[in-house]
């Protein structure tokens, strides 16, 4: 049973998946930083600092007027946090677009590399075929 498990783990698919998960986790941090630190501030600049995160509706409980979403949650109120959801959707769309652009670029690079490999190398000029040599020998013997 242990040998079967070793064989399973040693298979290429499992190792590829493990590497993919590790790289994906690291890539998530990069994309999250790209969106949060670079893209969202630019969008905020054009939209006048629009941020829906603190928009909510109190369903039950007491919350001081103008309190942030975090303060409302700490007060123990039941809140319908539609603003945080909207911001999560916007961030998802931005992240999905950035990942799409990266994958698109990587695919273009892969396609270009594949085309270079498929391009036939210049073949050396072919010498005379066996038939040509036999014909020359025949003609030389006739003389």
UniProtKB/TrEMBL annotation:
Name its cellular compartments.
Cell inner membrane; Cell membrane
**Care to name a GO molecular-function term for this sequence?**
mechanosensitive monoatomic ion channel activity
Task: Locate the transmembrane regions by residue number.
Answer: 12-35, 79-103
* One Pfam entry name: MscL
| Family named by the database record | Belongs to the MscL family.
The record's section on NCBIfam families has: mscL, PRK00567.1-4, PRK13952.1
Q: What is this protein called?
A: Large-conductance mechanosensitive channel
């Amino acid at each position: 049973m242990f040998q079967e498990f070793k064989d399973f783990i040693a298979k290429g698919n499992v190792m590829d998946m493990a590497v993919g998960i590790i790289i994906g986790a690291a890539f998530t941090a990069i994309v999250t930083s790209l969106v949060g630190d670079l893209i969202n501030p630019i969008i905020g600049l054009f939209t006048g600092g629009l941020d829906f995160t603190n928009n909510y509706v109190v369903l039950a409980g007491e919350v001081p007027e103008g309190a942030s979403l975090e303060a409302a949650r700490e007060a123990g109120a039941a809140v319908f946090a539609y603003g945080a959801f909207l911001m999560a959707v916007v961030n998802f769309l931005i992240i999905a677009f950035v990942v799409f652009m990266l994958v698109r670029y990587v695919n273009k690079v892969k396609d270009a590399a594949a085309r270079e490999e498929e391009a036939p190398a210049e073949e050396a000029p072919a010498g005379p075929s066996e038939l040509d040599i036999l014909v020359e020998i025949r003609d030389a013997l006739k003389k």
